[in-house]
Amino acid sequence: INLSAVLEEDFTWWKKNILFARAPMIEPVYNLEIFSDASRTGWGVFCESQRSHGYWKAEDLELHINLLELMAAFFGLKCFASNKRHCNILLRLDNTTAIAYINRMRDSRYEGLSTLAREIWQWCEQREIWITASYIPSKENAEADYESRKLQPETEFELDNSAFQKIVKVFGQPEIDLFASRANAKCRRYVSSRKDSGSIAIDAFILEWKRFLFYAFPPFSVILKVLRKIEYEGSSGIVV
């Protein structure tokens, strides 16, 4: 029997983790309960009175809603469990397809969903986190649903990519985007104004900017504060 590269990788993983990667025999005590939801506007997450949301990139909008729901669940983990270790987490979703892919760890029918489910479990494995997904009716998932349907504010703007590339050719590639979100970050490392699935920190003003060659496209309301911080620290970067 010839196995695909994906199956060979799966068998290798199970040989290594067979003694550890097993579901609890009894109902676990969950250390954290994370609610998530996705809409065509964006994604929303809620956990222990904390909430966050974000907007989709242009390419995300072409994806099926089932995949967006699975992405939202992953973003919830990244927002609320990045610093957790050795724990059980309950994920609450109103999408049965996403739930099935999480609980089965993967499924061969839809490659995109299967690949993302695998990525979620690998992320959890690195932190020794065991996750379980369960269904919650949409009307009871009010907080996450509300966050996912927030309209994109006027402050969620970005410089056109072609203009950004022209700047990079002159000044070099910046290391970090100080005022961004997953949807509009120009650098792999970025700082957001709220909990975000991929940001390295919340609130750019708490960081020491002179450690980086930074890129900043700040809201107009904080431009003076930005200039004062640059002058005070003696930092160097690209400000638009």
TrEMBL record:
GO MF entries: nucleic acid binding
CDD domains: RNase_HI_RT_DIRS1 (cd09275)
Domain of life: Eukaryota
InterPro entries, alphabetized: Hepadnavirus_pol/RT (IPR052055), RNaseH-like_sf (IPR012337), RNaseH_sf (IPR036397)
Name of the protein in its database record: RNase H type-1 domain-containing protein
Organism: Camponotus floridanus (Florida carpenter ant)
Lineage per the UniProt record: Eukaryota, Metazoa, Ecdysozoa, Arthropoda, Hexapoda
